[in-house]
């Protein structure tokens, strides 16, 4: 299984990283990692776009979800059934927002192995014939930041951008946008649902986790996570730039 993972994921990532390192004037590993991150983001774009749409649709659906929970709070079976019908009718899948993260996790592990092997030249035997062997790799970014060692400022920046990314998609809708008419008068319709409350907790917890993990990993991995989060923020900003009509149901296409 390890050899398959190496062949399918680690080897292509390592080769792309080394090829970029060789092609960049000055052989800057930091720029190579940034370009590699952009390439990964392009590949993941359809999945991330679907995730953003689902998250936004789920946020817009919270008043209706809360109305169902309040109305059927004493009948959990009926509540679950009606919520599933609501998700199906509105074409919202709460679990789909996890897909990009699940896809990105093996890429992150592959990058970790590629960096750990490539930075100390252990993995150069995995280079394809058309990728030149650089002999050694200079781990300094811009001649200052050593990406082979943990970097606290990069970890803090990654955590801050992670918070920005979560806040951007999970912030409350505009107060000028009323809840749907059919739930406007329902008790608790304007309150956050349990899912929304959990999302808000994650908005504060995940950045701390990112910082904690970032200070224990090589700076190259933290740089990857930082750039990936910045690209996701930009992608979300483009998607959320145009406000939806207040009376329109969540649209996923």
Give a concise summary.
This protein has helices spanning about 1-25, 30-60, 60-70, 75-90, 100-120, 150-170, 195-215, 220-240; strands at about 140, 145. With about 250 residues, the chain is mainly α.
Mind sketching the topology for me?
Layout: H1 2-23, H2 29-60, H3 62-71, H4 76-90, H5 99-118, E1 140-141, E2 145-146, H6 152-170, H7 194-214, H8 219-240
Antiparallel strand pairs: 1-2
Helix pairs in contact: 1-2, 1-5, 2-5, 2-8, 3-4, 6-7, 6-8
Mean pLDDT: 75
For the record, give the distance between the C-alpha atoms at the N and C termini, rounded to a whole number.
38 Å
Q: Which strand order does the major sheet show?
A: 1-2
Class of secondary structure makeup = mainly alpha
Shape: elongated
Radius of gyration: 22 Å
Count of individual beta strands: 2
Separate helix tally: 8
Low-pLDDT runs: 173-195, 247-253
N-to-C order of helices and strands: HHHHHEEHHH
Helix content: 55-70%
Number of domains: 1
Please indicate the percent range of residues in DSSP E strands (runs of 2 or more). under 5%
Give the biggest sheet. 2 strands, antiparallel
